[in-house]
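Honest question from a wet-lab person: if I give you the sequences of every part of a complex, can you actually get the arrangement of the whole thing, not just the pieces? Trying it with mine:
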Amino acid sequence: MLNSRIPEGPLEEKWKKYKANAQLINPANRRNYKIIVVGTGLAGASSAASLAELGFNVEVFTFHDSARRAHSVAAQGGVNAAKDYKNDGDSVWRMFYDTLKGGDFRAREANVYRLAECSMSLIDQAVAQGVPFAREYSGYLSNRSFGGVQVSRTFYARGQTGQQLLLGAYQSLMRQNDGNNLKLHTRHEMLDVITINGEAKGVTVRNLDNGEIVSHSCDALILASGGYGKIYYLSTLAMNCNATAIWRAHRKGAFMAAPSWTQFHPTSLPQLGGYQSKLTLMSESLRNDGRIWVPLSPNDQRPPNEIPEEERDYYLERRYPSFGNLAPRDISSRAAKERIDAGCGVGPMGNAVYLDFKDAIKRDGEKIIEQRYGNLFGMYQKITGTDAYKEPMMIAPAAHFSMGGLWVDYRLMSNLSGLFVLGEANFSDHGANRLGANSLLQACVDGYFIAPSTIMDYLAEKSPVKSPKMDEWDSAVIKSKSEVIDRLQNLLTIKGNTTAEEFHKELGQILYKKCGLSRNKISMQSAKNDLLILQKRFYEELLIPGSTNEINFELEKAARVEDYLEMSILIVEDALQREESCGAHFREEHQTDEGEALRNDEEFKYVSVWEFKGNNSYELHKEHLDFKFAELKNRSYK
Amino acid sequence: MKLELHVWRQSGQFEKGYFEKHVLDDLDEHMSVPEMLDHLNTKIIKSTGSPIAFESDCREGICGQCGFVINGDIHGPINGTTTCQIHLRSFDDGQTLFIEPFRAKAFPIKKDLVIDRSAFDRIIQAGGYIGVNTGQASEANTILINHELAEKAFDAAACIGCGACVAVCKNASAMLFTSAKVNHLSMLPQGELEASQRVTNMVNQMDEEGFGSCTYTGECEKICPQGISITNIVDLNRRWFWK
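Yes, you can. This is the full assembly:
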């Protein structure tokens, strides 16, 4: 049932071979094919621009007021590429292996290799677009190191790498937005995928400014709608990040892979109070120079600078001497949780650890540190009112990146024919844990380099639906539109007494507590129960003001929370089903004596892929993972 | 903490607007301004009123979506800071706040505090890019850019497109926004070839959108959340004259 369509042959030949054999469409005929792109982050904007450059007829939808607002903009640290500019032993193979190991051997070898292979072209492309990456005084590109690796392969633009890459992609998108090859619709949210005979053939969208519901047909559909870490409510994601596009596709038959694999970022700012709406991320790059510690003894109330060196526990350096403060994210987050649970957490809620730059400032001077992290220190001061040059930052783990997402094959096409899923919205390259600076990379590589090839290959076999069989299309549109309209109307007419946001907060609390950084069977069974009750209450107590035919942010939120609620039940199901620990998925029942994740390759060397069956029930399919080229090893950073 | 709010309400672009008064006495000084509005909206919704429409996405000062005028200050009382990064500790207990949208002819109000800034997108579309297609790029290190120039380009490229520069300008000029993009791209060797066409097209589009002229008062630089320098405007003018 699941065919991953990995090309035969040696690892390093697979992508070349695929491209060499991919079918092409004559430039003059490309305009007859219409491709719809949902989302204008790195993956959406880059694929839309690249496909329009090729001459396809592209239509793009984003719920934002401008394509430039997509949440890729907030990524700070950098983007990886195996350029080996540092002469420190990097190579495509090493990057492939680091990524595969970082993901705890739960990703497809061929996909991961391709990611590393295409990484170099991305840097070239971004530089050509004018992305102002950091430079050495000689004029050459500069690199830094990131968690989970021992080479320096991260390219960066101060602490705003995501913003700069996104602006590059956004500018390319706007350059094409002349109405000939590409048309951009802002403030439009996708609320349904239209399928005809099992193929994705269109979308139904809502104009968020006037509530108008419209359907659009296409020959291929790209979802690049990002991650769903915001399901935890308090997360590093933007307020409007949501799972609606992928969840609506899932309900129409697209399989969801490993939905419970959410990464908790170790260097977020801690929660300070109940009113809080999000957690702000501090770039992982800070771990290059900052040292992480907590007081050695629990409930130490002294200010950090008064705690002497010998009464500090640099727990990452202690537990993982070879990687130290640059241990991968899942491991660093869990180690922090372990200390916080042991009562050694700091800050007003005892939920944080210190990130200390004292030694780096002593070594390199304040000026150098300012050059490297000036904007991050400034941001920290704005939010907390604390000067991190003088006392350590306080950081804590926070829900961040979704490794899980819609299942795709090697072509990035889901099991629904014609539906391509790019960037964070898919499950493909990161396995059970993503390495820092691989997210921007994957979104860009998917959009600039992979989708243009694979979509053309897919379309070459189809004749364009310039005029779809009208009766079939018309009845599909009528059905889709009435489903969307009824759904929104039903939510509006509940008229209870609880806002969408209040439900979202409760949902987040349940997930953090019972299916978060670590999980066990008992807590998850109770989570499932809680979530079913919450879902039931949602349909009885939801309160949305206003109507459907106006700007109504509460209606937008409620529809997204409805999807989140349904998805959360699958998340728990997925985490329950996987009786092993791997990457970010830490099952307390499955750990070593030293508290490290205990993988079970014999029974779980596969990706859990879920089919929607309605009424909170799902059927499990398995994509078995073959490791023909890399040796399966215990993931150790000691 | 207690605050008396007067929030701008306007049901549509051509409707008449007014200030609506709300008194909140259960605020926390560590709340951000959008969090305060969330809190207020929950109360309004529960008393079956119509919540205040406002936009705010990343809440960490980078997406450029938020931005209100608070007591006449663009983004709020701290210069160089977006509204989402303004916390209530910046205000006095019991203070009265007037909260209204950014105002400019080229940024029509859609509803309450929500404005239409698509004019910025059209300025970018007119020339705010380097015309390179995917696949055309040469090896990255064949283009050498000295450290200072790369830093200078970054300084201009850091713009978040929030529109504060327009809102604070007495002429509602978009020169800081436009010049930042013109210079970011044109000072780099990759973007030099198109420099003359770029400045022409972007300035023409800016004028067409109805933004006013720049008289170099420097207010925009003072409040810009990314500290974009008005020397960019000088550079734009130079490029415009010598194009």
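Two things worth pointing out. The beta strands of chain B are 3-9, 18-24, 68-70, 73-74, 96-101, 109-111, 114-115. Chain B touches chain A through 76 residues (CB under 8 Å).
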